[in-house]
């Protein structure tokens, strides 16, 4: 999708120019979505529905920070699905990073996470969030050690890289008028779209993973590539399908 990056702050104009050159964004207006470079962050905006609000990546505060502090630690479903254990540092490839929230949770629990995102829009938002978080006095040091981003196709990346765990959360078409889909995710999905080739990811993920592949799915979605997992961990609106190759630590 061709999308414009708009900047109304003269002091930020050089940065806006660099971002356009790096990611291929337009300088003129685009509909119905645009990116806005603001003093505090880079944001995605839906122009034909202002009520949706701005979408940006913030690892240091807000809901993501609250989840890190009060979300249940290693007792969370995602930690159980990935197989986090005391004394074992897992290397995770998140091949469909999106807005990076699950990757951040895993990194906060001690995993080293390589985020892979093929959408230039999502990757730019992620990079902006990472750069700000790296400077944060509370989380910056360990984030620099545990989280990095690659702008690439998850499928191609998995063909050339390996990790202990491969994590997949492919974009799945949400139910129309579903109250379960947050406003910001509706904006994000409107730009990125569904991962129609998601089924192809499972085989390359299984080849790249040493211990297991974890697939996050809406509760109403079929198994990825119609392949039954070793186990599933059900949550309120989603589930984790876990494909176990061998016990962790062997």
Automatic annotation (TrEMBL):
GO molecular function: methyltransferase activity
Major location category of this protein: cytoplasm
Broad class of enzyme this protein falls into: transferase
UniProt entry keywords in alphabetical sequence: Cytoplasm, Methyltransferase, rRNA processing, S-adenosyl-L-methionine, Transferase
Subcellular location: Cytoplasm
Pfam families xref list: SAM_MT
Record's catalysed reaction(s): guanosine(1516) in 16S rRNA + S-adenosyl-L-methionine = N(2)-methylguanosine(1516) in 16S rRNA + S-adenosyl-L-homocysteine + H(+)
Family: Belongs to the methyltransferase superfamily. RsmJ family.
Function as written in the Swiss-Prot or TrEMBL entry: Specifically methylates the guanosine in position 1516 of 16S rRNA.
Protein name (record): Ribosomal RNA small subunit methyltransferase J
């Amino acid at each position: 999708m061709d999308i414009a990056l708009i900047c109304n702050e003269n002091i930020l104009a050089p940065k806006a120019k660099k971002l356009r050159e790096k990611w291929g964004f337009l300088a003129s207006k685009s509909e119905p979505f645009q990116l806005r470079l603001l003093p505090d962050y880079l944001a995605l905006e839906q122009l034909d529905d202002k009520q949706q609000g701005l979408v940006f990546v913030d690892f240091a505060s807000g809901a993501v920070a609250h989840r890190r502090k009060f979300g249940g630690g290693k007792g969370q479903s995602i930690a159980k699905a990935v197989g986090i254990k005391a004394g074992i540092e897992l290397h995770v490839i998140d091949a469909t990073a999106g807005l990076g929230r699950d990757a951040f949770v895993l990194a906060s629990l001690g995993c080293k996470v390589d985020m892979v995102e093929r959408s230039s829009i999502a990757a730019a938002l992620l990079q902006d969030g990472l750069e700000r978080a790296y400077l944060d006095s509370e989380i910056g040091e360990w984030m620099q050690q545990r989280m990095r981003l690659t702008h690439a196709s998850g499928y191609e990346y998995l063909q050339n890289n390996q990790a202990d765990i491969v994590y997949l959360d492919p974009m799945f078409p949400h139910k129309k008028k579903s109250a379960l889909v947050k406003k910001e995710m509706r904006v994000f999905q409107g730009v990125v779209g569904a991962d129609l080739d998601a089924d192809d990811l499972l085989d390359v993920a299984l080849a790249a993973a040493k211990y297991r592949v974890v697939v996050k799915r809406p509760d109403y979605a079929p198994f990825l590539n119609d392949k039954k997992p070793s186990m599933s961990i059900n949550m309120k609106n989603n589930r984790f399908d876990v494909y176990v190759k061998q016990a962790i630590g062997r």
